[in-house]
């Protein structure tokens, strides 16, 4: 029975971490300064701009210019009163060649300054080791489809731990495997835009979970005994339900869809090991029928399964929305592809409020449902919501974001009351930043950034004041309305 059940929780526990997040390519800028190497996102923006959804010539070359505005970032983090700040380290900034033959001192300086400033003000850093900006030099060798990447990633993680693990206690190995593998290698929505679904995304999936496990074991054997921190991985998890709950076909489509986006990454680490059984069987059958001599979904050896299984201290979850899943009237997907293997179509309802991002609609109670599902699937696991947020446009009175934020935090409280071991919540994002293929069209920030101005001035939105009040009182006061949009450090 849950310790929470007897006394429904109205208040967030004192040790619950309230945070906000960012990612290196989205905020740092300084893409070619101080010895930084080229990443696959630099390459994507400079050499394949036609693949962008926002056709406005934007890129992350300067972004929110956090590399030159550390004081500003610390200032706004302190104004909000965050318990914790999530940021990522840029692999090519730290290791310009992708390999540890040279370590960039300027990068160590920048991240040291950031970490030290956070700690000076009692703010817990949670650091993503890899948030999508792979060194281009490693992509030229196949990137995440090359099994050697598990070793390259471990080498990189060792440099990260050597330099920062005396002070950073919370580590996120990799952000959103599904987006890296499916959208980057299976599709063209993200770098490296390989567009080889049903093959490259599956190779990536296996190599990526092994890379994660290598970093986990490295930390656990060599750094944890000295510093006692914790290591997790971040999955994207959008809520999903069969469109017709009486239909066996819809239920199967829903299951295979969730396995294709989440299970193939989570099951090897948190489940019973290896890829999920139903999904492996489906891809093996399809592959045979298509004339492939073996399944397009690679297998794990017993040794690999054992190595990966249980390689976690907690799970990070990025959650934004959800969909209804059906097997009816499924479009003709390319063959082979992950979508064809899955055989599902995703439906959203017109009555759900639409954000500025085409992919985010407000599906009622999706976060609560997702947390409950994960809590039931993986009992005993600690969770953090590592991203959750609402995209709007420019403007400071962001009432939709305020409503969404309050609702999602209420859903967190409800999930905690029902026994889910949720330890923290990080809103996405601290400030407006470069939103990948969507450029600067989608604004997620608690703070607005003026990207037209070379100084990148920042202004708090209403949601910043509301979040600050929630953090301070550790309750959600639905009547709270700030008198003015002025933020100061308490
Ligand atoms: C997160 O991904 C990322 O981790 C974060 O860096 C990012 O800033 C944040 O989302 C907000 O965008 O409409 O077909 O082009 C969430 C997963 C992957 C969902 C890309 C939207 C585009 C789908 N996202 N996807 S489409």
From TrEMBL:
In Pfam terms, one family for this protein is Glyco_hydro_1
Looking up Gene3D superfamilies in the UniProt record yields: Glycosidases
How is this protein organized at the quaternary level? Homodimer.
InterPro entries attached here? GH, GH_1_N_CS, Glyco_hydro_1
Q: Which family does it belong to?
A: Belongs to the glycosyl hydrolase 1 family.
A Gene Ontology annotation in the biological process aspect, one of them, is:
carbohydrate metabolic process
**One GO molecular function term?**
beta-glucosidase activity
The source's domain of life comes to Eukaryota
Q: Which UniProt keywords apply?
A: Glycoprotein, Glycosidase, Hydrolase, Signal
Record protein name field: (diamondback moth) hypothetical protein
């Amino acid at each position: 029975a849950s310790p929470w059940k007897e006394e429904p929780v109205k208040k967030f526990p004192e040790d619950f971490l309230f945070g906000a997040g960012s990612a290196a390519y989205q905020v740092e800028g300084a893409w070619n300064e101080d010895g930084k190497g080229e990443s696959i996102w630099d390459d994507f923006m400079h050499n394949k701009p036609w693949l962008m959804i926002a056709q406005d010539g934007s890129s992350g070359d300067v972004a929110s210019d956090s590399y030159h505005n550390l004081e500003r970032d610390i200032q706004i983090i302190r104004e909000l009163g965050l318990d914790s700040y999530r940021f990522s380290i840029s692999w090519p900034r730290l290791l310009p060649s992708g390999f540890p033959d040279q370590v960039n001192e300027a990068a160590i300086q920048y991240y040291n300054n950031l970490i030290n400033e956070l700690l000076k003000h009692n703010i817990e850093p949670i650091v993503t080791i890899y948030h999508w900006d792979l060194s281009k030099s490693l992509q030229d060798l196949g990137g995440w489809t090359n099994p050697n990447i598990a070793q390259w990633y471990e080498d990189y993680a060792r440099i990260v731990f050597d330099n920062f693990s005396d002070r950073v206690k919370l580590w996120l190995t990799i952000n959103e495997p599904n987006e890296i593998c499916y959208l980057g290698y299976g599709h063209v929505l993200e770098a490296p835009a390989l567009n080889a679904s049903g093959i490259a995304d599956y190779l990536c999936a296996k190599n990526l979970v092994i890379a994660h496990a290598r970093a986990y074991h490295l930390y656990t054997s060599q750094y944890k005994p000295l510093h006692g921190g914790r290591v997790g991985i971040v999955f994207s998890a959008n809520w999903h339900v069969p469109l017709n709950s009486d239909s066996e076909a819809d239920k199967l489509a829903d299951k295979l869809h969730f396995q294709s986006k989440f299970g193939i990454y989570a099951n090897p680490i948190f489940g019973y090991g290896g890829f999920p059984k139903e999904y492996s069987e489906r891809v093996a059958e399809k592959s045979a029928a298509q004339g492939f001599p073996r399944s397009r979904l690679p297998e794990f050896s017993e040794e690999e399964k054992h190595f990966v299984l249980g390689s976690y201290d907690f799970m990070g979850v990025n959650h934004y929305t959800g969909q209804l899943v059906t097997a009816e009237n499924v479009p003709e997907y390319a063959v082979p592809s992950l979508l064809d293997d899955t055989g599902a179509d995703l439906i959203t309802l017109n009555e759900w409020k639409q954000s500025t991002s085409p992919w985010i609609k407000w599906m009622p109670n999706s976060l609560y449902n997702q947390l409950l599902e994960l809590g039931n699937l993986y009992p005993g696991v600690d969770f953090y919501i590592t991203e959750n947020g609402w995209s709007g446009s420019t403007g400071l009175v962001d009432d939709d974001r305020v409503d969404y934020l309050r609702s999602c935090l209420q859903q967190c409280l409800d999930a905690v009351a029902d026994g889910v071991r949720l330890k923290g919540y990080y809103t996405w994002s601290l400030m407006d930043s470069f939103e990948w293929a969507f450029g600067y069209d989608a604004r997620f920030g608690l703070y607005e950034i003026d990207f037209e101005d070379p100084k990148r001035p920042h202004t708090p939105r209403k949601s910043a004041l509301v979040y600050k009040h929630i953090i301070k009182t550790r309750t959600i006061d639905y009547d709270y309305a700030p008198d003015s949009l002025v933020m100061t450090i308490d």
